[in-house]
Structures are given as structure tokens and as C-alpha cells.
Amino acid sequence: MGKKLSSEMLPTLYIARHGETAWSLSGQYTGLTDLPLTERGERNAQRLGNVLRGHAFEQVFSSPLKRARRTCDLAGFAAQVHIDNDLVEWNYGKYDGLRIAEILRNRPDWDLFRDGCPEGESPLDVQARADRVLGRLRALSGDALIFSSGHFLRVLTARWLGLEVEFGKYFVLSTASLSMLGYEHDRSQPGIRLWNDTHHLMHH
Questions:
Q1: Beta-bridge partner residues of 183
Q2: CATH among 3.90.1150.190, 3.40.50.1240, 1.10.10.650, 1.10.645.10 for 6-201
Q3: pLDDT in tens, 83-137
Q4: Which residues of 75-97 are buried (b: 16+ CB within 10 A; e: fewer)?
Q5: Could you state, in order of their start, the residue ranges of all structural domains in the chain?
Q6: Which residues are marked as active site?
Q7: pTM for the whole thing?
Q8: 144-203 residue pLDDT tens
């Protein structure tokens, strides 16, 4: 078989975005509004579980929001999960429930990752949460799995790579997708090993 490459022995962070909700379908910003999954969202969460089944995770974490917790449960990790309040979605404040077009009508140059939200969180607020999460994850010696929401996971990925929050805009994530963050060769070089994989959702 040969010796495993050292990079394979370094821990990998698996990140799962929650399944579809009514607002993810309609394109409405869903921050702390605690929506359930749609029927398709529930089916896709189970399909996500099929990909993860049999993998040993040192720790599994979920946002306390229903859409993430339900995705975690349906994927088969209810017994193992730790709820981490730092994993909640970006608090969009006054923009919660709005579509991007509605926001841009009033603020044509608005950019979430640069400007944040009125009466919600600034990019630095979300960065602070992401950095706390990464501090806990980097202390683990084995693989970890987290269930959270799109914009928060995009900030987390930017921070994993050592980038400013604004780079999160480039990391598009679909519902019920799976991504993997890891290292190249040693812990000094973080990288993306898999991004926005949804092939498990194609099998009906």
C-alpha cells in the first residue's frame, strides 16, 4: 500500500451547509430567522448523510439554528453533535428577509462582506466568531464536521486561508453542499481540498 502522505494524516475540516429552506429558495437573506427545512431540504440532508456515513469525526458541531440542527440530525449526527452558538448565520439586522435586489435599490454599492448590515453584524463581528471557531477546531487532532449557514461558512473559509472577510464573497456555497478544508503537507499551509460538492444530490 505504501506509506500515507503526511497531508492525509493532518486533520480535515468538513463543512456542510444546511438544506434548502423557503427563503434560500426565494433568495431572501436568512440570518437569525429560524426557518425549518423544506421537504426537499430534508431529503437532501439525508443524502448528505449518505456521503458522510462511516467517517470517524473527532468532533461534530452545529449552529443552534433549526435549519442547521435538522440537517445535522437527518445526516445522522444527532447523538454526536455539540451546539456552538458561534456557528449561527450572519445577523442581517434590518436586511433579514430581504432579497439582494431590494437592498441594492436603496444602496446600489452595498456589499455584505465589506459593509455588514444595519442593526446587524459588521464583517469584523462575524470574523471574531469565525476566528473563535477556528481556534477550537485547530486544537483538534482528528477530523471535524460542522453544520452551519452559507455566509458564515464563507467567512470561516476566508479566515481558514488567512484572508480578510471580504474574500468570502468569492466562495459560493449551495444548500446541502459539502466542502473540505485542510492543509498541504504541514499545518503551516491551509488550503481548500473540496468545494461546494453537491454530487450526492444528483442521485434520485
A1: 190
A2: 3.40.50.1240
A3: 999 999 999 999 999 999 999 999 999 999 999 999 999 999 999 999 999 999 9
A4: bbbeeebeebebbbbbbbbebbe
A5: 6-201
A6: 18, 89
A7: 0.93
A8: 999 999 999 999 999 999 999 999 999 999 999 999 999 987 777 999 999 999 999 986
Contacts of 75 (CB under 8 A, 6+ apart): 16, 45, 46, 48, 49, 52, 147
What would the 3-class secondary structure string for the chain be? Answer: CCCCCHHHHCCCEEEEECCCCHHHHHCECCCCCCCCCCHHHHHHHHHHHHHHCCCCCCEEEECCCHHHHHHHHHCCCCCCEEECHHHCCCCCHHHCCCEHHHHHHHCCCCCHHHHCCCCCCCHHHHHHHHHHHHHHHHCCCCCEEEEECHHHHHHHHHHHCCCCHHHHHHCCCCCCCEEEEEECCCCCCEEEEEEEECHHHCCC
Q: Note the pLDDT tens digit of each residue in 52-71.
A: 999 999 999 999 999 999 99
User: For residue 3, is pLDDT > 60?
Assistant: no
pLDDT of 11 over the 80 cut:
yes
Task: Give the phi and the psi of residue 17 in degrees, each rounded to 5.
Answer: -85, 145
pLDDT of the residue at 9:
74
